[in-house]
Amino acid sequence: MGRLVRDIAVRQGHKVVAVIDPQAEGATSKEISKSSLQGADACIEFSVPEAVVENIKKVSALRMPHVVATTGWYKDIEAIKPIIKKSGTGLIYGSNFSLGVNAFFAILEHAAGVMDKLPEYDVFGYELHHNRKADSPSGTAKTIEQALLANISRKKKIVEEKLDRKIAPDEIHFASVRGGDVPGTHVVCFDAPADTIELKHTARTREGFALGAIKAAQWIVGKKGFYSVQDMMKDIIIQKGGGGGK
Fold first, then answer.
1. Is the dihedral of CA 96, 101, 104, 108 positive or negative?
2. How many CB atoms sit inside 10 A of residue 106's CB?
3. CA-to-CA separations, 22 to 1, 4, 32, 51, in angstroms, rounded
4. What digits encode the pLDDT tens for the residues 22-71?
5. 133 is a catalytic site residue
6. Is 76 helix (H, G, I), strand (E, B) or coil?
7. How many DSSP H helices and E strands does the chain contain?
8. Which residues of 160-176 are buried (b: 16+ CB within 10 A; e: fewer)?
9. Domain map of the chain by residue range?
């Protein structure tokens, strides 16, 4: 993803002043520092969950706007928010920076609100990813799960593991499959005896993730506070103006 972000950024006319990676061939530096980020307007991070918190601390100490596209670190969000506030800079994070996926989230929230009024329909979902993906379920799946729970009042719990029992009426089963080179597919089904409604997002390539991350880097420059990619999407789609960080 880092190489893809670099290649697309250059293609769009941006100047990539640093590629920071402790191991990757072609990196300009192994560590985040004032010198390694000299001349940068914003940082885009695709790394590993274990590195995110320390990277955020280092980048915020340099008062550099930061796009965090890595998932799996969200238990530390509340601890990170005051660090960003104190630094006086901006950070935007998300489970998926694809503009299509975030449009899918908006559509899903509306659809779930409609289906909340139709108890005849049960809901379930699944996601597919390549065999190199480190986390399961994906961060995108987690976001989908929370959107369903927030908008369908009869559902109270997500079940992600294998089920060897009858599912409870207030549970949603969301499954994960890993294999091959699938960039990412997410499906939500609303099913009743008479018919099925299926919402599906399929990524053809990983370029959509990189394009969204670059757009987020442009959006976060000049802003202060802690933002989610949903804040950016609302700003782009609805407000056409500045949003407020947390």
1. negative
2. 15
3. 15, 18, 10, 11
4. 888 889 999 999 999 999 999 999 999 999 999 999 999 999 999 999 98
5. yes
6. helix
7. 7, 9
8. eeeeeeeeeeebbbbbb
9. 2-97+207-239, 99-202
pTM given for the model: 0.76
pLDDT, position 219:
96
Please report, as a single letter, which amino acid is at residue 72.
G
Which residue intervals of 96-206 are DSSP H helices? 99-115, 139-151
* Highest CATH level, class, for 99-202: alpha beta
Residue among 58, 66, 129, 142 flagged as catalytic: 129
Helix axes 2-11, 207-220, angle to 10 degrees: 70
Other beta carbons within 10 Å of 28: 11
Query: What CA–CA distance (Å, rounded) separates 205 from 121?
Result: 32
- Verify whether residue 129 is a known catalytic residue: yes
pLDDT given at position 95: 84
Q: pLDDT means per 10 residues in the chain (246 residues)? A: 91 94 88 95 94 96 96 93 96 92 93 98 97 89 96 98 96 97 96 98 91 96 95 78 52
Architecture of the domain delimited by 2-97+207-239? 3-Layer(aba) Sandwich (3.40)
Residue whose structure tokens are 């369903």: 148
Q: Of the residues 14, 57, 133, 234, which is catalytic? A: 133
